[in-house]
Amino acid sequence: MPIGNLDVPIIGKNVTIAVLVQTHILFAAFIIGAVLIAATSEYLGMVTKQPRYERFARNLARFTVLLFASGAALAITFVLALVTLFPIFFSYLQNIFFWVFLVEAFMFLGQIIIVYAWYNVWDKLAYRKSLHVVFGFVAGFFGLMAMTMIDAVASFMLTPAQANVNDVARTFLNQTMVPLNMHRFVGNFSYVGFLVAGWGAWRYLRSTSEEDREYYDWMGHFGLLWGFGFLLLQPVVGYGYLKAIRESSPEAFNTIMLGDKAWTFLLLVFWLAVLSIASVAYFLHKLRYAVRPMENLRKLSVGAFALMALFSILNVIPADASIVPQIGLVFGGGEDVQIPLGSMYPWKYIGLIGLTLVGLFVLALYLRATASGFEWGRASRWSQYALMVSAVVVVLTMVTMGYTRETARRVDNEPGYLIYGCITLQQQLTPETCAATGLERGD
């Protein structure tokens, strides 16, 4: 059997790798974000002397430790599958990023050691809280560094540096490395925040004691501040990332923005709309239970909610009647039927900018009310359902984002690339179209 021709029955090797990578990212992103949020919560508990921050930090740290083994197993399984199913491609990738993979391995090892030490010495360092908080942030730092190394590889696969592959600095700092890393850094906090909010809502609805109801009501609020707060940064960071892709790999950009896969962007902004509307609706509801009545703030939030819905609708309008051609979701003349309000410029820009500005306005109003406090344990059921919907949708958002980025390299499969313009899905080198040099055999 020729090297690299091994396949997986029924689903194929491409789907196998996609499932393993997506699942691993969901675990890894949660662990990185959760460690930093837990460390921040522990610090807030130390400063404010409010026990709920300490309780939250410890419980989140415990869950992270339990999740770590599963995430590590998925990472190992993914690497083994990649070596087995795409050995030629992996050999090139390993030669190009040898030092990056080496650093990533040590960062991962450091993260394992510090995370477990951080949790296990929680009680022993109870009277040296500052030192224990530092442990948490150091663990988060190792996780971020490991993520940064992997982002260098992922970004190179889509936008290979216009330099020799032996140029370590240029290869590492390729055209989209920084915006991708920023995008994932912000996304980790938002992802974990929404999941925490959803879990808090679930436990709130199942709690019977007043103490637990107050705590889990607060947890939903605290998680949503992280989730929605960092979500508002994503349109800005995402624009920078898309701009870098357009300038470096225009055909890949056209595939996901103008071609048959343009529906992936519409799906992303749809998830963004759901998260935004659900979050603002929750904030609006919560203002009713502010310790100090703030009717004016609530009226302003009602107006902002209406604007949020308007901008969200503007974002999800398709550019033409060919919405998802892969499944036959095409109306009338398909792509020949243009929808004026669905064009990227200026309407999508207006929608995304409006969504961000209105979201920041609502968040500022809510934080002002938060300063005086809320009556915890009195949240309605529908507000908790909004949090649980957000938790489900944020997972779908992560999966859609991953699919969108990876499908960009397929260029409608004419051909599809493992490294854009350089190595095809069939593991064949195409140096004549590759921006990077030095990939040819013998170089």
UniProtKB/TrEMBL annotation:
Keyword Cell membrane: yes
Keywords assigned: Cell membrane, Electron transport, Heme, Iron, Membrane, Metal-binding, Transmembrane, Transmembrane helix, Transport
GO CC, one annotated term: cytochrome complex
Major location category of this protein: membrane
Pfam families for the chain: Cyt_bd_oxida_I
GO biological process, one term: aerobic electron transport chain
UniProt entry tagged with the keyword Metal-binding: yes
Subcellular location, record wording: Cell membrane
Annotated TM spans: 15-39, 60-90, 96-119, 131-150, 185-202, 223-242, 262-284, 305-329, 349-370, 382-403
A GO molecular-function annotation: electron transfer activity
InterPro entries found in the cross-reference section: Cyt-d_ubiquinol_oxidase_su_1
Membrane topology type: Multi-pass membrane protein
Family listed: Belongs to the cytochrome ubiquinol oxidase subunit 1 family.
Name the record gives this protein: Cytochrome bd-type quinol oxidase subunit 1-like protein
UniProt source species: Rubrobacter xylanophilus
Phylogenetic classification of the source organism: Bacteria, Bacillati, Actinomycetota, Rubrobacteria, Rubrobacterales
